[in-house]
Amino acid sequence: MQKGLVKVWESKQLPSDWFKRQQVDQKATADLEANVKTILNQVKTEGDKALIEFAQKFDKAQLTAATLKASPEEIKDAYTQVTKEQVAAIEFMKQRVSVFQKQLLANTEVKAFNEGIMVQTVLRPIESVGCYVPGGQAAYPSTVVMTALVAKIAGVPRIVVCSPSDAAGKVNPLVLVASDICGVDEVYKVGGAQAIAALAYGTETIAPVRKIVGPGSKYVTMAKVLVSQDVAIDMPAGPSEVLILADQYADARLIAADMISQAEHGTDSVAALITPSAKLAQEVQDNLFKMAASAPRAEKVVDSLSKYGFIIVCTDIDEAVKLTNQFAAEHLEVMANDAQKLSEKLVAGLILIGPNSPVALSDYASGTNHVLPTGGFAQAFSGLSAIDFMRRVSIVECSREALEKVKAQIKVLTDTENLPNHYRAIEARFQK
Amino acid sequence: MQKGLVKVWESKQLPSDWFKRQQVDQKATADLEANVKTILNQVKTEGDKALIEFAQKFDKAQLTAATLKASPEEIKDAYTQVTKEQVAAIEFMKQRVSVFQKQLLANTEVKAFNEGIMVQTVLRPIESVGCYVPGGQAAYPSTVVMTALVAKIAGVPRIVVCSPSDAAGKVNPLVLVASDICGVDEVYKVGGAQAIAALAYGTETIAPVRKIVGPGSKYVTMAKVLVSQDVAIDMPAGPSEVLILADQYADARLIAADMISQAEHGTDSVAALITPSAKLAQEVQDNLFKMAASAPRAEKVVDSLSKYGFIIVCTDIDEAVKLTNQFAAEHLEVMANDAQKLSEKLVAGLILIGPNSPVALSDYASGTNHVLPTGGFAQAFSGLSAIDFMRRVSIVECSREALEKVKAQIKVLTDTENLPNHYRAIEARFQK
To answer: Does domain A7-22+239-367 have CATH number 3.40.50.1980?
Structure first.
């Protein structure tokens, strides 16, 4: 096979630990943990003062306790810095996400009588939620839509956004506009691990929240893991990934285009193809080689593809499915014969079917969430949804008659578990 | 007010940090974390050898790699050590839980066309799950039902139970019988933090799992938090709690019985009453004083009540609701006028309505789960359910026509977020 941009493996040559993406550098992790702990502790003990100090250090911004929060004037002003088309596009995304999330919430409540005992399950919104919106290289209004709007649809009464400020002490206007459109209650100019600390433990200016969601750097992710002893988080998050499962009928040009689009996210972003067709693998390599060179941001794309991109050529489609599921990608595109049926067996955060469903569609226009489990976590985690901003509460009401019917069984079980006073509490209902 | 067993507060005297249960002893937590990390690392590096060593050290059991797993003979033998009534009671509990969980899973899948884009959400079982079942003071077959059975109903293909062995190298027969009845695939004689390490990272004998659930000691809980960087867990868990919200019409004798039943769980178990009625508060104190002395396990009950029990007398029912929600108890019993309506405003892991719905009912016979969020986590977490053993996956399929319709909006959004190759991937669908 001709040498190309990405590494090509035949499935039988794959190292046995190929899919262990969590090959953690223990030393680096310990250092990161220690650094983040220092930041968390400083925010815990010094509050706003620490946030102001970190904003100066990391964002080169001069803030005060009074300017940590984006003011109504700043939000109004943000609208003057964005185009009408951008506002309309954010509104479009809002509408798409709303339709899908509302469908997801329909029929989620259950009320039933099980042998005389009324058991009801209701979903209730979490009281307050914090959404982390990364800053830095670009503006991510879509992250606001995918986190804060979804919390709004769930009925969360208090929604907070934290996003790093620029050197002028401002949050990106697109983030402010998206926050306004999505009904965010408070926007703070705080980034990194210090934002997670403020959301978890509160400061003089920022009241703590019950759950923290949203993507971020490795500092943000480590901070989320560390505060998860005290406050709920969505999921551990790592670099974005697309895996494409394709057979000989797929279009190599489209596969290459989707891999390139993934690669522009950052140098550690994974773009990969698993296929039983050696011919397709070669065609994708050829297309990558040709297309990446002329792509916008070519240097970044080429660097990312050559470091993290890969193609695996399998002996047949069954083996391709097996390896796809071992990888458990964040995004999985299926471009193969009978893709819908194949998808029933596949493991991924989000599954995109057919030639006209690229990741760029699901990132912006399908209404599904783009906050998804990465790094193999799709094996056990789900993409963010309105349900993640709610608590599932069971409500039980039993009649005296129904309680009498189950009394004898409860006696056996409480005796078994050495909890005699549990049975006495039942008995008390039948004594005077 | 006459002095009684538990501390009584008038609401206006409550210290402002009364509800901050996470008043963590930083030094003790750091020590615990360091100890647990040592155990996790030893299991990671030494595998079975470490498990055998810890079983000897903590459980006084002589095990080998060959006897770490409960054998089919041991499971068969376990049935000879339990009564017919116990087996029937476990079967009863299995039936109750099954009915409720199956109702919960009905209607959870969504398939819809949103402006030509097919979006489907399906629930799929996690591939493998580990259930921790505590040992020690008593046997907890109900924990097997509440974790492993629920995983089974979700369709999890591989279900593992870890529970500490006794000094004879055996897992409690009731735990083995319950595991057999609930369809558990593997039972290992491993307890404590080392069990969590084995489930998370695997050893020669124990293959790792994708999610770890179940209650445990502070070592188990710390281990779960630490491994949550690498594997999914259910929730942080602390001492069990019951809070009773009652008005002047409630029966003080039943309230006292329920508080005593809670107190027998352990010395750090919280049993509490919040009420607007000073008269009821006094009656409950009187009943506690009288009933606790003659209760089975009286010493433990009295110790627990006097250390962790409390009563708060509020000015009115609205304040009682407010304080109840600040506490966000694991179990909340509502014995008040119009309890059903009141429950709509209440925050708790599980809500029990009326005089005939004590915690002992929900622990064993209502079919609801007794693995519930404690320590105020009910603000953001839900009780364990079949849904927690599943991944929510979205599947998207777009037609060329539908993609063409959303193209322009995607262009604005990808330009906004500086991801030009994302738009190029869309455009590629319309070029040859």
So the answer is: yes
